[in-house]
Amino acid sequence: MNDYLHNTIPNLKPFNYDHHHDAHFINKPWVLVNGISKKKSIYTFKADNVLEISRKDNVIKTTWNINIQNSFSIETEDGKITVKAFFKDDDILVLNNENKEEFALYINVSNYDDDINSVEDIQDFLKEKYKKKVSTIIYDHEFYYIEKSKEFGPFKVEVLAEKVNAGDISAYCFVRDVNEHDYSNRMRIEDLLHEL
Question: pLDDT tens digit string along 12-50?
């Protein structure tokens, strides 16, 4: 991955055929983020190496291929391009042009109820997506809390919520993640409960 892409979008995972191809890539509606304010394009990579590009009432069919190094060749209106595929997560795809310092960013909208037609829609999508992700991480994670100079835990957030609701502990007790060594981030139980 070149420095340009890595610096622009950190923490990308390279396309892994076994993990991504069938479950996260093929037959998924990928909305192209680049240029969405001018025109919306949906890319669907079919198993038979057909690429469908949908724009309003127009569908263009072209081809795509993947080689053993996970490089993709895509036939576009501008000619054949070679790209490397990366995932930010399972529904954010980045195709990095191997010959230029440019990339295309796509969002898989198959699990999203609203239409994505503008930059504001993309912002709403990302906000909802990461809010769910944070909520899931917090819900499944464990935390220590400190009260009256004593540390207790670790507990999952639902247990902490039960203790707060029962009046056993204060919602203003400081908490720390099990992977943190101190309470310097100043997070309270109340902060965790707001994210659920």
Answer: 888 888 888 888 899 999 999 998 888 899 999 998 999
Phi, psi of 116 (to 5 degrees): -115, 110
138 three-state secondary structure: helix
Give me the residues paired with residue 86 across strands: 14, 94
Q: Say how many residues make up the chain.
A: 196
C-alpha 109/C-alpha 32 separation (Å) is 11
Q: Are 109 and 29 in contact (CB under 8 A)?
A: yes
Please write down the HEC assignment for all residues of 79-119.
EEEEEEEEEEECCEEEEEECCCCCEEEEEECCCCCCCCCCH
Paired with 51 in beta bridges are 45, 62
Task: Respond yes or no on whether the N-terminal peptide bond of residue 154 is cis (omega within 30° of 0).
Answer: yes
Give residue 167's identity as a one-letter amino acid code: G
> pTM, whole model, 2 decimals?
0.67
- Mean pLDDT, residues 88-105 taken together: 87
pLDDT value for 129: 75
| Token pair 């192209």: residue | 32
